[in-house]
Write a structure and sequence with these properties.
mainly alpha
Length: about 150
């Protein structure tokens, strides 16, 4: 068996767990310790990210080769929400009416290096999880002889 296929079958879920757990803990730090109030889009990103940690953990314990099929819908939707949020933060897109309640979605609580915001960090985590799970799905399909 190819080393890459074997690697992603064996470690793909663990690799995906790292950014999911980091995003979960990071968002809790920013809201509960730093006191930043999440906007509506931040909540949507949390709704998509938080279950990933639990889903991936269960997949690890069960050695579930179908784990990417459960994770990818959440991570792909999360990439969309995070991209939309980041574009609002950077002023590329207008803020929607959904963002008018509570904290506006264009409020930037952190801005590391001039471009790394909370939405950017969430987008990065969703991208990492998506890429890792896509490779993991590919690896399982290779071993099953279902590769395209």
């Amino acid at each position: 068996m190819n080393k890459t296929v074997s690697f992603f079958q064996q470690y793909g879920a663990y690799l995906a767990l790292a950014p999911a757990l980091a995003a979960l803990l990071g968002s809790l730090y920013y809201s509960e310790v730093a006191g930043f109030i999440p906007c509506t889009l931040c909540w949507y990103q949390r709704i998509l990210m938080y279950p990933l940690t639990l889903i991936i953990l269960v997949g690890i314990f069960k050695h579930d080769e179908y784990l990417p099929n459960y994770v990818l819908p959440f991570s792909i939707l999360g990439m969309g929400v995070s991209t939309y949020h980041y574009l609002i933060e950077k002023g590329v897109l207008e803020q929607s009416t959904a963002c008018s309640a509570g904290v506006p979605c264009n409020v930037v609580w952190v801005n590391y290096l001039g471009f790394i915001t909370i939405a950017f960090m969430a987008l990065t985590a969703f991208i990492m999880i998506t890429v890792i799970m896509a490779f993991t799905r590919w690896a399982y399909r290779q071993s099953d002889g279902l590769a395209e």
